[in-house]
Structure to design on (198 residues):
């Protein structure tokens, strides 16, 4: 597993410092899970589902992310959290998702969440139904675009922990993807590249 090394490739310098400071607090962090869901479109081309979150008063407002969310007491496991949240947010039934791999956990200081990402596959084209209260739009990324190194860039952004900082990012379907989502995507990309190189 590429793990934290791949995360750090897409982590802002300020975030690396914050991750180091906060690493001892992981036991107090809230728990969440997300799903990197791959599926065929109607032409049979593989895509990855990302979401654009609604604008709200919170640290992840109007950001691109994976379907997922907070672990609930009724969830049987972190994987169940990812499956449940994916169904709630984009309408893909849990029974239609084959979970292939659990990725490296990541701590997100601004929201104090310890996130466990999973890679899942849907063998048929999903009938997406977006959760109107939380999801602004579905972003369907071609796997060829995801693997293209030209998506990498740096952007100036402001966040809850720093103002006007330059961060590593990906441009996917004209959306700027940075922060924790980019860090997790970095690991997904490295795993896919290992697979394609074999």
């Amino acid at each position: 597993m590429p793990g934290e090394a791949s995360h750090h490739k897409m982590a802002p310098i300020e975030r690396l410092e914050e991750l180091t400071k906060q690493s001892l607090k992981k036991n107090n962090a809230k728990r969440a899970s997300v799903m990197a869901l791959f599926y065929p479109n109607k032409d049979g081309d593989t895509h990855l589902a990302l979401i654009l979150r609604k604008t709200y008063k919170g640290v992840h407002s109007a950001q691109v992310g994976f379907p997922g969310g907070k672990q609930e007491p009724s969830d049987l496991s972190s994987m169940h959290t990812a499956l449940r949240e994916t169904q709630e947010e984009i309408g893909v039934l849990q029974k239609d998702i084959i979970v292939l791999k659990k990725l490296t956990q990541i701590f997100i200081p601004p929201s104090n969440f310890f996130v466990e990402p999973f890679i899942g596959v849907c063998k048929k084209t999903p009938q997406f139904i977006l959760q109107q209260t939380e999801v602004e739009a579905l972003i369907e990324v071609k796997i060829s675009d995801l693997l293209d190194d030209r998506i990498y860039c740096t952007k100036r952004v402001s966040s809850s922990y720093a103002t006007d900082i330059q961060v590593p990012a990906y441009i996917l379907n004209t959306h700027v993807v940075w922060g924790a989502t980019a860090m997790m995507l970095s690991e997904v990309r490295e795993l896919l590249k290992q697979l394609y190189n074999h």
Summary: Helices lie at 3-9, 13-22, 78-90, 143-147, 179-197. The domain at 3-197 is CATH 3.90.79.10 (Nucleoside Triphosphate Pyrophosphohydrolase).
